[in-house]
Amino acid sequence: MKTRLFRVKAFSVLAVVAMAVTFAFTSCSNNDDPTLGSGGASLTEVDGNFVVKVTGLFDTSRYAIFTIPATSNNKKIDLNASDVAWKVIGTGLEGNSVNNRFEMGSYVLINKKDSKNIYVKALLKRVNSKEEYFYEGNITN
Description:
Blueprint: H1 2-26, E1 35-46, E2 49-56, E3 63-69, E4 76-78, E5 87-90, E6 93-96, E7 107-112, E8 117-126, E9 129-138
């Protein structure tokens, strides 16, 4: 009888520990999540270029401003190349098509769907970091 009671208690303790470990790994948010955006995107057209600012959803002090030719609407632009004039500035990052390119695999795609809606997706890679930006919805101010 004692052995059976001990086994039930031991099993109960192990079950509680297993659940606690599971919750510890699944319920915490990843503070290293590089995905920003969804907080809004503004668009201005200046001298034949789109200037798009994407802000963070949870941290609106984080942002990226992308400048691309309006003729590149809905085209994926390689931010490691110089075939299209592009510029990126933002929180802790900067790059351009002339002499400060991002790592291989970096890109931006901006699609001004109409006068009210926009789609922005970008991946910015540096040697020791990467950030992703995404927004789809109404153009904000």
